[in-house]
Amino acid sequence: MNDSPSQSALNPAGAGAEEIANLFYVMAVGAGIIWTIVIGVAIYALFYPGKHDARKTRFLVIGGGAVFPTVVLTALLTYGLAMLPELQRPAPEGNQVIEVAGVRWWWRVHYRLDDGRTIESANEIYLPVDEAVEFKLTSEDVIHAFWIPSLGGKTDMIPGRETRLKLLPNRPGTYRGVCAEFCGAAHTQMALDVVVVSREDFERYLNRLAQPADSFSSPGWTVFQRRGCAACHAIRGSQADGSVGPDLTHFGSRRSIGAATLPNTPDNLKRWITETHAVKPGVEMPAFETIEDAQLQDLVDFLGELQ
Ligand code: CUA
Q: Which parts of the sequence belong to the Cytochrome c domain (predicted)?
């Protein structure tokens, strides 16, 4: 839980991200060469002896100012365009499909199982390493963009439309995904945890996720119901079936709270419940400022038991 997730397009852990990182380095080196030569020529032109030498002027203006940048920029453009078909190649059949919807300001996640069933989760995605995964992306309100910098390129999430993204993670680890399209007040706090694991661990995760919750003998379950949490949140295995907010069936096992706003600890959860709008301004969830300490503790215990 303590390892902080990587969020860098230059620390690639997936096939698409490696190409994008290479593209960046090639572009940076190309731009560096152009800059060095053009500035070098400009400095030379300022100080070179024999200011009215037409031959030298022609060389500087045409060679250094036009021909050289044209050649290098054309080469870089060709390199970049040649990479596009590879990045846009459709996903092979039979891979894991994960549906993600952007919602102000969190992520609704559905895993599609082989038997056609789907399981809902939120704000956290597990992926099997070395396997192509296809994301089907949409939005429930405004335009968001789904971006896991360490794994690949960003893709817009557009209401009423489905966009697709294929990722091929090749290094186990925890990566941070972000919303990359300004979508309102809490845009910067719309993040998610992406955990890349082995095939066996991924299946173990899906099996666990498919199980309904079973901690309803906990006193916090009564608080959850009395406080009306079920109007917005679902917990599979109970009557709580709200869909306005994130599904909480396995909330206790998640790494973070509030779409990767805070690490998932009991103290942070108390803050989230009582000072919601100080933690994440603009969020739709009401703050429960007046809840008694004992009730709050029961509620936090119950949510933590949702493993
Ligand atoms: Cu969602 Cu920015």
A: 215-307
Structure tokens at 184: 């309102």
Three-state SS for 134? strand
CATH class of the structural domain 219-305? mainly beta
* CA atoms lying within 13 Å on the CB side of residue 266: 10
**Closest atom, ligand 1, to C-alpha of 188:** 2
Nearest-CA residue for atom 1 of ligand 1: 144
Q: Distance between CA 154 and CA 179 in Å, rounded?
A: 9
pLDDT tens string 197-232: 999 999 999 999 999 998 899 999 999 999 999 999
Instruction: Quote the ligand 1 centre to 180 CA distance (angstroms).
Output: 6
Query: CA dist 252 to 92, 117, 211, 306, Å?
Result: 34, 23, 14, 5
Note if the pTM is more than 0.90.
no
DSSP label at residue 175: E
Q: What is the ipTM of this complex?
A: 0.99
| CATH class assigned to 96-210 | mainly beta
Question: Torsions phi, psi of 277, nearest 5?
Answer: -80, -15
Q: Is-contact 95 202, C-beta < 8 A?
A: no
